[in-house]
Amino acid sequence: FGRFFWLYNAGLMISAASMAVNGVLHVLCEDTGNALAGIAGAGHTIMTAGLILLFVAIGQRALTAPAAPAA
User: Fold this and answer.
1) 42 with 7: CB under 8 angstroms?
2) Contact yes or no for 39/71 (Cβ under 8 A)
3) pTM (2 decimals)?
4) CA–CA distance from 55 to each of 14, 26, 36, 63 (Å)?
């Protein structure tokens, strides 16, 4: 679960920061360029990898035998 958490949040921060910069540049009527879109896309790709890790962790947890009930 820890790998999912850090990877997803890193991708979220990259995406949010690049979209904020993109918004500021649009308000200032500046050219945003293609690099900023690529950075936002990389952030989304990292978030997707994090979600894949989450589903893998859930799948592994679902396949393990349940613990014995406490008496």
Assistant:
1) no
2) no
3) 0.77
4) 22, 36, 29, 12
